[in-house]
């Protein structure tokens, strides 16, 4: 490998790809970020980052910028459709925790990460470069891309697919239809809107449990924009959902609002999946975040889990670059991150979704183990803090596999 070649090629300029590239660049590792579009994705998408993700973002030196643009939610409530509070997770007791839950739309995080990455001369960003093929050339990762100036090959010691749910890298490794798991028999409509939920007693984030009108309503910006994500039959088209939206919102939201009572700025229906790639490492090719695994959005485990992937993978690649680890650390990465998904992220996120459309919301708090745990610590700030910190179980320290240790 020549001195001009990057040590790592990262495919995809979503938050995972940007964050991984930034941490590598900060550690003096030559990195090239490849993106098929000509700019960042402007869709707001996910919004909440739990403690394990915040820890990685803080490590990357971007938390001051995130805090300046975002905010720290205080309470999350589970409610019935008639607005009976079933349980409340109170984050006010962890206000001094540097890794407390923070909220910022994903497109704004991308802009922050890009601005930091562009400051590093050892990082190269190639826009309008679409991956068409990959190959392992005696341990070197080769990526074929189409670009405005034609087709070319990019070489690096390692190639990381951070290119999302439809990852080209994953499909080239395993096949277009090889992404084990399932698609839920429902779809979620993610909308951003200005509507005052606070006047109905809602907290910063709310999960409304109901067999028909289940949804999440969470404030996502300082100026009062809310994310309203609700479930609809998987068979409905986007056009049908738009036709039914006003009636759905009138029946679903508190106050039975008319269209003049709110302002919608984004409307995005999408399928919901629980999937895990059969491996997150094949030779010099590695997968992270949505390219490797998917889960439904309720509870934010997909976003947080993906960022935790990035933090762990960065440590593995830093160890390799600095000669502190051998290639087996990437097999450990694949094994551990797949286990964290299978043992925690998948079952917990699945339970979060199933709870949303429970058939008897009036008794769910007596039957649901998670709600029982929340209510069991509601009067004890120390135990509430421990419950909130339970999500740290999805983290793992890969530096323990460095040779020096």
Automatic annotation (TrEMBL):
GO terms for molecular function: FAD binding; monooxygenase activity. The keyword Metal-binding does not apply. Residues 8-343 form the FAD-binding domain. The keyword Secreted does not apply. Keywords: FAD, Flavoprotein, Monooxygenase, NAD, Oxidoreductase. InterPro entries: FAD-bd, FAD/NAD-bd_sf, PheA/TfdB_FAD_monoxygenase. Gene3D superfamilies: 3.30.70.2450, FAD/NAD(P)-binding domain (3.50.50.60). It holds the Pfam family FAD_binding_3. This is Putative monooxygenase. It comes from Trematosphaeria pertusa. The lineage of its organism: Eukaryota, Fungi, Dikarya, Ascomycota, Pezizomycotina.
């Amino acid at each position: 490998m020549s001195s001009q070649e990057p040590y790592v090629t990262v495919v995809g300029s979503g938050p995972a790809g940007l964050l991984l590239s930034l941490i590598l660049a900060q550690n003096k590792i030559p990195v090239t970020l490849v993106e098929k579009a000509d700019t960042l994705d402007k869709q707001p998408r996910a919004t909440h980052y739990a403690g394990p993700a915040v820890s990685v973002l803080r490590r990357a030196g971007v938390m001051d910028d995130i805090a300046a643009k975002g905010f720290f939610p205080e309470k999350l409530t589970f409610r019935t459709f008639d607005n009976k509070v079933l349980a409340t997770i109170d984050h006010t007791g962890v206000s001094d925790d540097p890794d407390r839950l923070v909220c910022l739309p994903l497109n704004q995080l991308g802009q922050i990460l890009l601005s930091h990455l562009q400051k590093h001369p050892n990082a190269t960003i190639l826009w309008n470069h679409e991956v068409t093929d990959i190959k392992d050339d005696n341990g070197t990762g080769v990526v074929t891309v189409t670009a405005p100036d034609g087709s070319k090959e990019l070489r690096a010691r390692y190639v990381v697919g951070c290119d999302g749910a439809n990852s080209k890298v994953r499909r080239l490794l395993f096949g277009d239809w090889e992404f084990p798991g399932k698609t839920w028999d429902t779809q979620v409509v993610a909308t951003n809107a200005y509507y005052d939920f606070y006047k109905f007693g809602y907290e910063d984030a709310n999960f409304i449990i109901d067999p028909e009108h289940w949804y999440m309503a969470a404030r996502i910006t300082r100026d009062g924009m809310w994310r309203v994500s609700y479930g609809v039959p998987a068979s409905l088209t986007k056009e049908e959902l738009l036709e039914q939206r006003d009636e759905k919102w009138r029946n679903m939201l508190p106050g039975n609002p008319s269209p003049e009572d709110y302002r919608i700025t984004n409307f995005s229906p999408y399928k919901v999946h629980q999937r895990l790639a059969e491996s997150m490492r094949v030779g010099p090719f590695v997968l992270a975040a949505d390219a490797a695994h998917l889960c439904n959005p309720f509870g934010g485990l997909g976003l947080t889990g993906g960022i935790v992937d990035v933090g762990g993978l960065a440590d593995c690649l830093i160890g390799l670059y600095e000669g502190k680890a051998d290639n087996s650390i990437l097999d450990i990465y694949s094994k551990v991150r797949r286990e964290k998904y299978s043992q925690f992220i998948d079952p917990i996120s699945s339970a979060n979704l199933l709870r949303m459309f429970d058939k008897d919301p009036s008794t769910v708090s007596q039957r649901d183990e998670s709600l029982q745990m929340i209510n069991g610590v509601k009067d004890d700030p120390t135990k509430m803090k421990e419950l909130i910190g339970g999500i740290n179980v999805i983290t793992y320290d890969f530096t323990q596999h460095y040779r020096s240790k």
